[in-house]
Amino acid sequence: MTSIPRSADLVRVSASDDGRIVHVELARPQKRNALSDELIMQLHQVMLGLGDAARAVVLSGQGEHFCAGLDLSELKEQDAAAGVFHSRRWHAAFEEIQFGRVPVISALHGAVVGGGLELAAATHIRVAAEDSFFALPEGQRGLFLGGGGSVRISRLIGFSRVTDMMLTGRVLSAQEAAAIGLVHYATAEGAALERAFELARAVAANAPLSNFAVMHALPRITQQSQSEGLFTESLMSAVAQSAPDAKARLKAFLAGRAGKVVKP
Description:
CATH superfamily of the largest domain: 2-enoyl-CoA Hydratase, Chain A, domain 1
Number of helices: 10
Largest sheet: 6 strands, mixed
Number of strands: 9
Oligomer: single chain
Helix content: 40-55%
Radius of gyration: 19 Å
Order of helices and strands: EEHEHEEHEEHHEHEHHHH
CATH class of the largest domain: Alpha Beta
Distance between the termini: 38 Å
CATH topology of the largest domain: 2-enoyl-CoA Hydratase, Chain A, domain 1
């Protein structure tokens, strides 16, 4: 795994399950894990440097909150050009989360606010503890989304709901977030991380190329016309099923050595 700068040590990384599950923690709890430029840089480098054994990432925040958003102290002297470059650094880091090598499951608790919600939206599966709350307070602070939220969050819940959250400062509970599709799972307080690891192990058991196809092809197919999407689907299907791992799994299923889907 590629090393990252340790001048601030704002991102902690550990691995389990023989390196298959990588736990990435935002480690700035005294600032509610507010996203500074240094933290964003370290997070980006961690995602770029995942080891070959990695099959899934669990992303969480230390302390009482997942992430309270942008560290506003870094904006006070920025001009427009610096603001654009700042936003693009966030875009690059979050793009590596969404379109990197392995799926990312986020364990959310406490504040998931502003840039913290933009970060969560870049992950593939979101698990929210009962004490988590979600907001986009940029409108009340004279700001606009800059970490990809205008695209990702709008695609998750629709731009109309994003409009409401930004104009009114509306705060959503974990149950409300689950009801509108902002998160996939709502758990008891303190249980999000455990659930995220359970899901990560299930994800890691899949064929790597199948996971890659879900991460990379599926979001692009949804943006294509029907004819283009169907053709892209055919190409990705052919590539995925041609992998040696896929062939071995099919043989195991046909031989009765793999479990069938059953009613929960």
